[in-house]
Amino acid sequence: MKSDHGDIELAGVCKSFDGITNVVDGVNLKIADGAYCCFIGPSGCGKTTILRMIAGHEDPTAGEIVIGGQNVVGLAPVQRRTAMMFQSYALFPHLTVRENIAFALRVRGQSKADRLRAADAMIEKVRLTQFADRLPAQLSGGQQQRVALARAAITEPRVLLLDEPLSALDEKLRVQMRQELRRMQQELGITFIHVTHTQLEAIALADLVVVMEQGRIKQAGAARDVYAHPHDRYVAEFMGGQNVLSGRVEKVNGTSFTLAQAAPAGIEVPLQARSTVSVGDTVDIAVRRDDVALVRPGRELPPGCSNSLPSRVLAIEYQGYFVKVMLDTVPDDEFVAYVPEKTFFADPFTVGDVVMATWATGSALPLAHESRRAQGV
Amino acid sequence: MQPHQTLPRANLAGWLYVSPLVLVLVPFFVAPILVVLAASFFATDGFGGLTPGFTLASYVEVLHSALTLKLYLATIKFTVLTWVFTLIIGFFVAYFLVFHVRNQLLAIGLFLLCTVPFWTSNIIRMISWIPLLGKEGLINQALLATGVIRQPLEVLLFSDLAVVIAYVHQLTIFMIVPIFNSMARIDKKLIEAAIDAGASRFDIMRLIVVPMSKSGIALGTIFVVSIVMGDFFVVKVMSGGGSASVVSAFYEDVGVLQYPTAAASAVLLTLVLVAIVSLILRTVDIRQEITR
């Protein structure tokens, strides 16, 4: 039952190394053929373990891993037709670039002429032709990364697994190699699974972003969904760009509810169709940092804004096209406004100024409460 | 100018750094070699007295003697046999310790176990072969009892076989240590990457582990070759006097007060060893591998 399809299904996958705690705890996920999927989470959240289980370097304690309709648990990487690109690349230091890339073909018994021809074609694809006879130690980080990519891709796998592929590179190179990864993925047309702890990397690359915490999937969805509509406080804080406020529900009417907060009138939040909220509940809401507008006290609020929270400016960071203003709006949580550069410098604030933080009422997003466990989509 | 003033001081610091090594090497290595070299050119009165001078008579004698070639061939035979067996055993012991013992504490424990034979002296280690290999030894008794042989095997002890066994027993550790050292520095991710590419266990050993252990193998080879070629004691004891080696021959010369001939043989052997070692170093760049 051989299939060229690289669609992956994880069903109830668990992994425990010590028999007591599950590093990966009941993960269910479907990844479409030819998708670029990013697993993201803090270190120790089990993302690399999932990758290694898909690759066949680790066996799940429970559950099934299905690739192209075939349960691959117990199969060797070659039989799965997966290939892995290791963190810090694991290039063979005693072999040249060409020999590194041809290695998989060599151990598959291809003749020397054939495998060198295939390797040279791949070397051209990753633009390393002039470095073909060098040893890995004589290459820069970005070049090494391309060798690793070429070495993994030469076997024509149906799934390519990348373990923090960009973490060893400096900032500028990272952005450049990120594009190259995406280009390779489109060129090869195969499923890429990429593990990272940088949210920028994930949302820039992925068709499917999977946010993990402690062995569980917190949220899985398109990059824009996960960033703009985080499911709960954890995802909102991890993906960044959101202010999370929490408070007790004071009043509920048909389309909105009111959250008790520092503002005398409370905060009005639109009620989403599926969430049920009753008076007395503690609820988290998210407000995008770039939706927050700052107004001097006494001035009129922009249209559509009914909430305004008095705050003091704690710090100001110039970021180029926007200015990051940190406020003491809520007692224990960070509250930050990303003000467009031009708006900010039209009437600049200084540290210690009192301002009113406001946002369009409709843009606030109620979050699922922590205690109700988030399920992967 | 500044560099002119600082240069002598930098030189002095450099000399200070190397002085401990110099203080050891000069009196214990360079000086004895020079003494032997000088003695090899002296003439002798045949009764142990040396006449300072310059004569190549001793070299002519050593190089013209048919015995010299025979001794070198015998010594090289022991060296090659010992090298082959210590390399095979040493490589696989190191491989097992590095790649199959997952518990690091256990690996260190097993590693120390390899050094147990060295807790006792060389002589005792050799003597202890007698109850095992001797005519009435354990092996012969076992073989007689099981009816495999009728007569006890004489070849086990006081033979070339016994010499090689004793060498392998003594010197395998000199292979294990450097090979273990270079293998332990192989990133385990490389092995995983090779598995990912579809390499079999044999492929991994052939294409990854052996090439990456080259420096350890070369170092171990240098140890084993130079020890076996410079030894006479094991040959003497374990062959029961039946075999000789290069060193045992000039040991005899010293016994009969032929110092210049002994010294000339010693210089010749040193040159041969230097040639062998530099050949090994040419094939493996140990310095580069060690600082990698």
Features:
heterodimer; A: about 375 residues; alpha+beta; six-stranded mixed sheet; five-stranded antiparallel sheet; 20 strands; about 25% helix; elongated; disordered C terminus; B: about 290 residues; mainly alpha; two-stranded antiparallel sheet; 2 strands
Q: Short summary of the structure?
A:
The complex is a heterodimer of chains A (377) and B (292). Chain A has 377 residues and is of the alpha+beta class.
Major sheet strand order of chain A: 6-7-8-3-9-10
The proportion of residues forming helix of chain A, as a percent range, comes to 25-40%
Rounded to the nearest angstrom, the radius of gyration of chain B is 24 Å
Distance between the termini of chain A: 29 Å
> What is the mean predicted local confidence, pLDDT of chain B?
87
Give the helix proportion of chain B (percent range): over 70%
By helix and strand content of chain B, what is the structural category?
mainly alpha
Question: What's the assembly state of these chains?
Answer: heterodimer
How would you describe this structure to a colleague?
The complex is a heterodimer of chains A (377) and B (292). Chain A is an alpha+beta fold. Chain A is built from 10 helices and 20 strands. Chain A has helices spanning 47-55, 77-80, 97-107, 112-125, 141-153, 171-188, 199-205, 223-228, 233-239, 341-346; strands at 8-15, 24-31, 36-40, 62-67, 70-71, 82-85, 159-163, 191-196, 208-213, 216-221, 242-252, 256-259, 267-270, 282-288, 293-295, 307-318, 322-327, 335-340, 354-359, 365-367. Chain A has a 6-stranded mixed sheet, with helices on both faces. Chain A has a 5-stranded antiparallel sheet with strand order 13-12-11-14-20. In chain A, strand 12 (256-259) and strand 13 (267-270) form a beta hairpin. Chain A is elongated and about 80 Å long. Chain A starts with 7 loop residues before the first strand and ends in a 10-residue tail after the last strand. Chain B is mostly helical. Chain B has helices spanning 2-40, 57-64, 66-100, 104-113, 122-127, 130-133, 138-145, 160-184, 188-196, 201-212, 214-229, 233-238, 246-255, 259-283, 286-290, and strands at 43-44, 50-51. Chain B has a two-stranded antiparallel sheet with strand order 1-2. Chain B is flat. In chain B, 29% of the residues are buried. The model of chain B has no long low-confidence stretch (mean pLDDT 87). The A-B interface holds A 55, 57, 76-78, 82-84, 86-88, 90-94, 103-104, 106-108, 137, 151-152, 155 and B 187, 189-190, 192-200, 203, 207-208, 211-212, 292.
